[in-house]
Specification:
By secondary structure, the protein is mainly alpha-helical. The chain has five helices and no strands. The chain has a single domain, classed as 2-Layer Sandwich (Cytochrome Bc1 Complex, Chain A, domain 1), CATH 3.30.830.10. The longest helix is centred in the first third of the chain and has 18 residues.
């Protein structure tokens, strides 16, 4: 996840944009997915979002916005970890925490 704060290209962002818009279009053809989308929009925005507005919001995301979000929410932040089952070989928390300092 740290890599998103440093090593993101415009081509990668464009690829993800197009995939997300395709997924959003496909979701409009399924009644249960439409209901889920309406509920999510009401919870997050307090209103319905027209597909053209959603597409324009997706198009507004650029490399700098992704890097800023990664720095704000992912880089040098503490993790919450949980494990189920035999955990004797599960790495210590410090192993995960030190990954933040790996040079990319």
């Amino acid at each position: 996840m740290n890599r998103f704060g440093y090593d993101v290209t415009e081509a990668q962002v464009e690829d993800v944009r197009e995939r997300l818009k395709a997924t959003m279009c496909l979701a409009l053809g399924n009644t249960s997915q439409i209901m889920e989308m309406i509920g999510r929009e009401l919870l997050v925005h307090g209103r319905r979002i027209h597909p053209t507005e959603a597409f324009s919001r997706v198009n507004d995301v650029d490399v700098n916005a992704i890097k800023l979000a990664a720095h704000r929410h992912l880089i040098d932040k503490d993790y919450a970890l949980a494990a189920v089952g035999p955990t004797m070989e599960f790495p210590y928390y410090t192993v995960f925490r030190n990954l933040h300092y790996k040079a990319w």
